[in-house]
Specification:
With 367 residues, the protein is α/β, with parallel strands linked by helices. Helix content is 46%, strand content 15%. It has helices at residues 10-25, 45-50, 67-85, 97-108, 128-139, 148-156, 170-182, 187-191, 206-209, 212-225, 237-246, 264-273, 282-290, 305-310, 321-331, 347-360, and strands at residues 2-7, 29-34, 58-59, 89-93, 113-116, 142-145, 164-166, 198-202, 230-234, 256-259, 276-279, 295-297, 313-315. It has a 7-stranded parallel beta sheet, sandwiched between helices. The protein has a 6-stranded parallel beta sheet with strand order 10-9-8-11-12-13, sandwiched between helices. Helix 1 (10-25) links the parallel strand 1 (2-7) and strand 2 (29-34). Helix 1 crosses helix 16 (347-360), helix 3 (67-85) packs across helix 4 (97-108) and helix 4 (97-108) runs parallel beside helix 5. It starts with a strand and ends in a 7-residue tail after the last helix.
């Protein structure tokens, strides 16, 4: 049996780590295709190195560009590749342009598609991620849902029960498997930080980086909060470019330490020791919860609603710097309700078993 995995962005490398291990343990041959959506060393290769992942067999080198150009580049490269490899499954992750391209290319060639993180919904179609996940779920044969909320979303959309599988969240698997290695990193020492004496920030979504009003509010909010607590801001390349283009890079006070994008293990060490995490990343919202650290989510809505309900995360639309600062400072020491909404850390093994079992019972797994 052959599974062709399509990944291309930082969060997908992390999610693919545990699943690749589980596929090998199940005796399933995996072919990994890197679309090249994220291509900087700090956003790509470092994750393969740290998680001891085999290098991708193929790199499409799609690079950056508009959504249309980037997705079209991936599609053009995936089509002949899929025809040559003839996989039994195409495995996709999350909600990026790489996810969309993998789903479209496979579905048009009648190759079964399995979607990890199926069923997530922000109900905001102005987000490119929402459009990507809606299309991916529509085209997928196996919808691998991380939470009961995701399952409910799919059922509400009329998806047949035989396509829905509640497997848990593979990011919890990753945190469980690789977390022990984070203890030996030196990120705290490098930045001169004391445990629980700083806030950790990441911003990357286009709705924030491409909107000067929201980006200015974020800079102001982090600046105000830094008067009371040190801020470490791990800067995504898109965000750095937006800050420079707008001139906001010169308005950050000394209390905000700017860092290049950090590897997974360094980030985990900082997350575990932060007093509060400030982000617009879906993955980091969950990692904050895994580390039992309160999170301020700088968005109007989130797919991970259970974190809001449990009190581990709070939404703060980034429209006012004072509100952002107040949210950061008031979150320190907040403890949410104990719960296990993301499974038991064995999601990857369930995914591997589902893929193998579905083929074994006669699903259309031959090209």
């Amino acid at each position: 049996m052959k599974v062709l995995t399509v990944i291309g962005a930082r969060p997908q490398f992390i999610k693919a780590g545990p699943v690749s291990i589980a596929l090998r343990q199940q005796g399933i041959h995996e072919v990994v295709v890197h679309t090249g959506q994220h291509y900087d060393h700090s956003m790509s290769q470092v994750f393969f190195d740290e998680l001891h992942l085999d290098p991708p067999q193929f790199n499409l080198n799609a690079g950056s560009g508009t959504h249309g150009v980037q997705t079209a580049t991936m599609l053009a490269a995936l089509d002949p590749l899929l025809c040559a490899e003839k996989p039994d499954w195409v495995l996709i992750y999350g909600d990026t342009n790489s996810t969309l391209a993998g789903a479209l290319a496979a579905a048009k060639l009648h190759i079964p598609v399995a979607h990890v993180e199926a069923g997530l919904r922000s109900f905001n179609r102005s987000m490119p991620e929402e459009l990507n996940r809606l299309v991916a779920d529509t085209l997928s044969d196996a919808l691998l849902a991380p939470t009961a909320t995701a399952v409910a979303n799919l059922r509400g959309e009329g998806v047949s029960e035989d396509r829905i599988h509640l497997v848990g969240d593979v990011m919890y698997d990753a945190a469980r498997i690789f977390g022990r290695f984070a203890e030996h990193r030196h990120a705290l020492t490098r930045f001169g930080l004391k445990p629980k004496g700083f806030a950790l920030a990441t911003i990357h979504r286009a709705e924030n980086t491409d909107n000067i009003t929201r980006l200015r509010a974020i800079v102001e909010g982090l600046g105000l909060a830094s008067q009371a607590i040190e801020i470490v801001w791990s800067l995504h390349p898109r965000t750095r470019k937006a800050l420079v283009a707008s001139g906001l890079d010169s308005q950050l006070p000394r209390g905000v330490t700017i860092s290049e994008p950090l590897g997974y293990l360094d980030m985990l060490q900082l997350e575990r020791n932060a007093a509060v995490i400030v982000t617009d990343s879906g993955g980091l919202q969950k990692e904050a919860f895994f580390c039992r650290v309160p999170c301020v989510t700088l968005r109007d809505e989130t797919e991970w609603t259970e974190l809001i309900d449990l009190g581990w995360s709070r939404l703060c639309p980034p429209t006012d710097g004072f509100a952002i600062s107040a949210a950061i400072l008031s979150c320190q020491g907040v403890v949410g309700q104990p719960a296990t909404p993301y499974g038991d850390g064995n999601s990857a093994s369930r995914i591997a078993a589902i893929l193998e079992k579905t083929c074994a019972v006669g699903a259309p797994c031959s090209f």
